[in-house]
Amino acid sequence: MSYSTIISNTSFLSLASKFTTRGSRLQCTVSMARSAVDETSDSGAFQRTASTFRNFVSKDSNSQFPAESGRYHLYISYACPWASRCLSYLKIKGLDDAISFSSVKPIWGRTKETDEHMGWVFPGSDTEVPGADPDHLNGAKSVRELYEIASPNYTGKYTVPVLWDKKLKTVVNNESAEIIRMFNTEFNHIAGNPDLDLYPSHLQAKIDETNEWIYNGINNGVYRCGFAKKQGPYEEAVEQVYEALDRCEEILGKHRYICGNTLTETDIRLFVTLIRFDEVSSYFQSKKKKYTICERISNVETLIQVYAVHFKCNKKLIREYPNLFNYTKDIFQIPGMSSTVNMNHIKQHYYGSHPSINPFGIIPHGPNIDYTSPHDRHRFSK
Ligand SMILES: N[C@@H](CCC(=O)N[C@@H](CS)C(=O)NCC(=O)O)C(=O)O
After folding, report:
1. Per the count of CB atoms within 10 A, which of 101, 122, 242, 300 is most buried?
2. Which DSSP state fits 121?
3. ipTM score assigned to the predicted complex
4. Cα–Cα distance, 26 to 42 (Å, whole number)
5. How far is 362 from 297, CA to CA, in rounded Å?
6. Domains of the chain
């Protein structure tokens, strides 16, 4: 297998687990058994597998998982868009006092001494990585351990987000699309912002329909570009990404939010991908200039070139779309939202997880987009 083949098969989130630098040669140390990287169909297209824990917290106090203040904990990674959408809900619904949360370290580590699996790990102390917390609840060293506490025979992926029940010591749900719906409706009696309904009944059909093409074209679309193992599925995915972005740009020229002039779930879903988009693209763009030292290492030139277009979504940046860019700032400026965006974690993840490509782990300063600067979205009446 050539390096270029390997790289094009590998996700950002798992690249560190695949390569080590030994002397001047890169060696493949394929070790992940349970990761998004393995989720590819025979045709070479990325296919995300379904989440496993699908229980629901309910406002009904007699249910198995009743919505009680202090009972649940949300494990996230600030680097992960799916986890970030759950954190966004926690913040804008005012659930900080009712539901605790913590973030893992941005860079994957070994999850066990007895095998090679790499995944999300907790820091050893409160000060090791700003923004990341040790697991004070279970004393776990990794997210994998949480899944194993919940289900000793678990064989799926060890993903974030995880909604954890402190009382029953188990994973309630690990599917962000469902966690956000629970946060929207089930905790209102203990929420600081109970009247905010991001999935109102009169807009549900519109939201469901819009979610579908935004998920396929944008949220999962960027992964389908990055994880494609063959040219055909990539071409199809990248075309869909830009078709969907163009469609958003047009819609956002007509009203403030994506489903009209009301903020909905779809806006939060879209935002978490948009806010990461330009950082990732500019990362690739900076590659060619930065890695002269690597170019001396055999085969690395191929690696860099493939990597530079790894996500392959650099046809146009979000800041080149006036409506999408202003819209991203608008959502970022909703009270609570900016605290869900930890650009250091996002950047540390991307720059720090690839020691063979970025041997000194230096994190560049740019592009430093100021999402707090004025936007023009107030031009739409509410
Ligand atoms: N369906 C899940 C997907 C979550 C997901 O893919 N999380 C990634 C991080 S962005 C993860 O934890 N990956 C770990 C792995 O693939 O092993 C959701 O939306 O909640």
Report:
1. 122
2. B
3. 0.99
4. 27
5. 18
6. 72-190 (3.40.30.10), 201-282+300-339+364-380 (1.20.1050.10)
Residue type at position 331: I
Residue positions forming the annotated binding site for glutathione: 120, 157-160, 175-176
- Residue 193 CA to residue 195 CA, distance in Å, equals 6
Phi, psi of 50 (to 5 degrees): -75, 150
Per-residue pLDDT of the chain (382 residues; tens, 9 = 90+): 222 222 222 333 333 333 222 222 223 333 333 555 556 667 767 666 667 899 999 999 999 999 999 999 999 999 999 999 999 999 999 999 999 999 999 998 999 999 989 889 999 999 999 999 999 999 999 999 999 999 998 989 999 999 999 999 999 999 999 999 999 999 999 999 999 999 999 999 999 999 999 999 999 888 787 777 788 998 999 899 999 999 999 999 999 999 999 999 999 999 999 998 877 554 444 443 333 333 333 333 333 322 223 456 778 888 899 999 999 999 999 999 999 999 889 878 766 765 544 566 667 666 788 999 999 999 997 5
Annotated catalytic residue 80: yes
Answer yes or no: pTM beyond 0.90. Answer: no
Q: Is 147 a catalytic residue?
A: no
Please tell me the residue having the least CA distance from ligand 1 atom 16: 35
Joined together, the tokens standing for residue 271 give: 């935002």
| Residue nearest atom 13 of ligand 1, based on CA coordinates | 159
Which atom of ligand 1 is nearest the CA belonging to 161? Answer: 20
* 37 token code pair: 């990287």
Q: Which of 80, 248, 294, 313 is catalytic?
A: 80
Rounded to whole angstroms, the Cα distance separating 7 from 136 reads 36
Residue 283 and residue 351 in contact, taking contact as beta carbons nearer than 8 Å: yes
Which residues make Cβ contacts (< 8 Å) with residue 220, sequence separation at least 6?
A: 48
**Which residues neighbour 366 within 8 Å (Cβ) at sequence distance 6 or greater?**
282, 286
